Amino acid sequence: MRTSSKFLTIFSAFLCVLTIEAIVVKQESSLYGPYEAGTGHLAYWGLSGSAHLAETAIRLTPDEAAKQGSIWNNYAILSNDWEFHVQFHIHGKGVHLNGNGLAFWYARDPLTPGPVFGSRDYFSGLGIFIDTVENAAAPHNHRHPYLSAVVNNGSFPYHHDEQGTAGQIGGCHLQARNLEWPSKIAISYISDVLTVFLDTQGTETWTQCFRAVGVHLPTGYFLGVSANTGEYSDNHDIVAITTLDNIIPDKIWEDRSYLVPYAEYLEIPFVAEPPPKAEEGEATSSSLFGKAVYVGGIAVVLYVVYAIFKKYKAQKKERKHRS
Ligand SMILES: *[C@@H]1O[C@H](CO)[C@@H](O)[C@H](O)[C@H]1NC(C)=O
């Protein structure tokens, strides 16, 4: 509880420094421990999948394979400017073999389980992913754990097996596993600018992960956090959550409920078509190769027939000549 209010005060102060205009922060729904382990009921929030209340945290997944769990706010965000602060703790037995990670959402469809860190693919809205899996097989230019933010209008799949960063508007590397203290993320969405701050030291020292301008998100979406485990696992714990409505003086509220999520600047483009699976790829290339051999073979046969015919004609001509 103490941590939570301290967190808030620091952050409000931080905000005032950041913005010239004063912002009135209206606290909407906060969540902090101790929780009543086993009850499974929270005001304003819904749990799904493996998510359950432990004493000091909401455990989205235990440190067991193939689990997915999430927590979503029951009320849509109607404010144009908001903040989402989450204190989380990722920890497990694995030293290098662990997975998969956490996702922070501002999305149209809450409580929809799926493959993207425990939530649905082809999502509409904002997804901020903390991928804790070091995937040596995939080509990428960043270290893990890696935080990546994606704005999707529901038309693109999430490519977890590659870099998981298609459509990224910003990202950064962070320490996020097996730390003694919980980490904190502060997601700030003010005047179409999305900024993500992290405190991974447990010392109230905030660092900016990224700042993206020209991010257009509708009103009426839901805040949530989800996690999943695969073959390898981790405990994905949520220690505290705060959602804030920021009221900027003199700013006229806009009904943005019909806006399609859109980011003006992408760091990494979307992958339009999912790449063919390795087997399919081989099959296509081998059938192509087969076709080439077939066509080539016919050409060779035709040429040989032609050559023989020519030779035969020449011989016939020669014989005719001699006689
Ligand atoms: C969704 O995003 C893609 C890529 O930015 C774009 O081509 C498409 O038109 C968008 N759909 C809508 C409904 O805006």
UniProtKB/TrEMBL annotation:
Pfam families: Lectin_leg-like. It comes from the Eukaryota. One of its GO terms (cellular component) is COPII-coated ER to Golgi transport vesicle. One of its GO terms (molecular function) is D-mannose binding. Residues 1-22 form the signal peptide. InterPro entries: ConA-like_dom_sf (IPR013320), Intracellular_Lectin-GPT (IPR051136), Lectin_leg (IPR005052). It is found in: Membrane. Keywords: Membrane, Signal, Transmembrane, Transmembrane helix. One of its GO terms (biological process) is endoplasmic reticulum to Golgi vesicle-mediated transport. The chain crosses the membrane at residues 292-309. It is a single-pass type I membrane protein. SUPFAM superfamilies: Concanavalin A-like lectins/glucanases. Residues 23-246 form the L-type lectin-like domain. This is VIP36-like protein. It comes from Nephila pilipes (Giant wood spider). The lineage of its organism: Eukaryota, Metazoa, Ecdysozoa, Arthropoda, Chelicerata.
